[in-house]
Design goal:
Shape: globular
CATH topology of the largest domain: MetI-like fold
Strand content: under 5%
Number of helices: 15
Order of helices and strands: HHHHHHHHHHHHHHH
Oligomer: single chain
Structural class: mainly alpha
Number of strands: 0
CATH class of the largest domain: Mainly Alpha
Largest sheet: none
Number of domains: 2
CATH architecture of the largest domain: Orthogonal Bundle
Length: 325
């Protein structure tokens, strides 16, 4: 097991290096520091002196890869690439273009994001898997047909409709919870109930239909027919055999959203004014704060790779046939 984990970590290093290089090229070669200065200063005819001052304040006046004027190792370390890309591997995110400590901002904003995404993931898995099993159990019946029609209808509705409709109905008309905002401690619960509820409702259609497909595929396999031939009831076969064997594709789907647990939901946090990492990224894009955007891209890549490794490890827990060598 440990050998497998170390090997996967070793495989992930070239991927992170590639993501880092591509991100660096996009931000500093395709879009040069002069271009960033002009966009940040917001002036059509900004002076050269203002551009140079802006680059000097942020360290963007250094050579990109090789500093021939520096001494010894500073020829490499005193460059834009080392200061803004290599240090990311040490999780040294540096300062934003506005001068804020990015690492501190991440440590503060991750908790509002987790307060929404973690309950949404756990409650969502429970609800969607349950609904999927119910539709699979009553397959080809009126319950199944009606459920599939509702799922398709809910999939066809934009997520913005659920957000705006939920804010209007639950927050403005019924006055059950605040429409937007955030607070610390237990006071945060009243601000997170509505985003979590809307997230659950918005994902019912696609997720339930997908889980139903997984369970129906498992129910058509030989081991299910063998279990039924031995006299096991439909319920026991469904929960003991079909559900356990269907967990592998379910785990594969869960890993896709693992990075969002930390980074947060961009749209939801923006609409509900929640100070999480999702709104942090959106604000950085709007303000053209390229240091924050680079950091969040790298962080998302790291979390996705960690999710892939955890998923492969979890396969051994749900399927004894899988062995990690």
């Amino acid at each position: 097991m440990m050998t497998y984990i170390l090997r996967r970590i070793a495989y992930s290093i070239p991927i992170l290096i590639g993501v880092n290089i591509i991100t660096f090229v996009l931000f500093f070669v395709v879009n040069t520091p002069d271009d960033m200065a002009r966009m940040q200063l917001g002036a059509k005819h900004v002076s050269e002196a203002a551009i140079n001052k802006w680059k000097e304040e942020r360290g963007y006046d250094k050579p990109i890869l090789w500093n021939s004027e520096a001494q010894a190792t500073e020829k490499i370390t005193d460059t834009i690439f080392f200061q803004n890309s290599v240090k990311l591997f040490l999780f040294d995110f540096g300062s934003s273009d506005s001068g804020r400590d990015i690492s501190y901002d991440i440590s503060q904003r991750m908790w509002p994001s987790l307060s929404i995404t973690v309950p949404s993931l756990i409650l969502g898995l429970i609800a969607y898997i349950t609904f999927g099993l119910i539709l699979a159990f009553f397959r080809s019946s009126y319950i199944d047909v009606t459920g599939v029609i509702l799922c398709v209808a809910m999939m066809s509705i934009s997520g913005l409709f659920y957000i705006i409709g939920g804010q209007y109905l639950i927050g403005k008309v019924l006055h059950l919870v605040p429409i937007s905002g955030y607070d610390v401690g237990f006071n945060a619960i009243k601000f997170t109930i509505l985003p979590i509820l809307i997230g659950l409702v918005g994902g019912i259609g696609a997720s339930t239909r997908w889980y139903r497909t997984i369970f129906l595929e498992e129910m058509g396999k030989d081991y299910v027919r063998t279990a039924k031939a031995k006299g096991l009831s439909e319920v026991i076969v469904l929960y003991k055999h079909v559900l356990s064997n269907g967990l592998i594709p379910i785990l594969t789907g869960v890993v896709v959203i693992l990075p969002s647990l930390f980074i947060g939901s961009l749209i939801v946090e923006s609409f509900f004014a929640i100070p999480g990492l999702g709104s942090y990224t959106i604000d950085a894009i709007s303000a053209q704060d390229f240091a924050i955007v680079r950091s969040m891209v790298f962080l998302g890549s790291v979390l996705y790779i960690i999710g892939l490794i955890l998923t492969d490890i979890s396969y051994t827990l749900v399927d004894p046939r899988v062995r990690l060598n």
